[in-house]
Write a structure and sequence with these properties.
This protein is an alpha+beta fold. The chain has one domain. The protein is built from four helices and six strands, in the order H-E-E-E-E-E-H-H-E-H. Strands 1, 2, 3, 4, 5 and 6 form a six-stranded antiparallel sheet that branches. The radius of gyration is 17 Å and the shape is elongated.
Length: 176
């Protein structure tokens, strides 16, 4: 799946809810949304991996949240964190479960795949993409949401959307 397809799928699922909450779409190559909260903006965005989509390993995306003086993604901010910063222990268990479900359906490439002609360290890095998670993530983990197909995107957004709803609610109730 190309990043544009991933963004289109995520947008289709999540934007109606965010729009209802007063968010607008950011004008950027990534998929982002923003809402003004008093003098600052709450900005939420999704970014696909720059590695692109691999026919065997799939790809992944992250979710970032920022509070800033502008509605632009990635600008100087009062707060900028990836979604794990805001999550609870149960959330991390659900993330590991879903990630391992997705990885269990991946098929490792044949030995003729180009990756096996590259240096050993690159081969090891690539093959780690197929390994299941054996530890539980925490608030400082750098979690990339692995996907292979549309069903994986839907599964992730079903899990992530309530997390985002809580983050939005919490920011709306505070002065950050």
């Amino acid at each position: 799946m190309k990043s544009t397809e991933v963004y289109k799928e995520i947008n289709k699922i999540i934007f109606p809810n965010l729009k209802f909450k007063g968010f607008k779409k950011a004008k950027t190559g990534m998929l982002g949304f923003y809402k003004q909260l008093k003098e600052f903006y709450l900005v939420i965005w999704f970014q696909c991996s720059q590695d692109g989509f691999d026919q065997f390993a799939g790809s992944e995306f992250i979710v970032e949240i920022q509070i800033s003086k502008t509605n632009e993604i990635g600008t100087a901010s009062v707060l900028r964190e990836r979604i794990p910063f805001f999550l609870k222990e149960k959330d991390f268990k659900d993330i590991v479960r879903i990630e391992n479900e997705i990885k269990s359906k991946l098929h490792k490439p044949p030995t003729t795949y180009f990756i096996f002609n590259l240096p050993e360290n690159i081969q090891k890095w690539y093959m780690k993409k197929f390994e299941k998670v054996t530890t539980i993530y925490n608030n400082s983990s750098d979690i990339w949401f692995k996907y292979f197909d549309q069903a994986d995107i839907e599964k992730w957004i079903k899990l992530i959307e309530p997390m985002i709803n809580k983050i939005v609610y919490d920011f709306e109730q505070t002065d950050y």
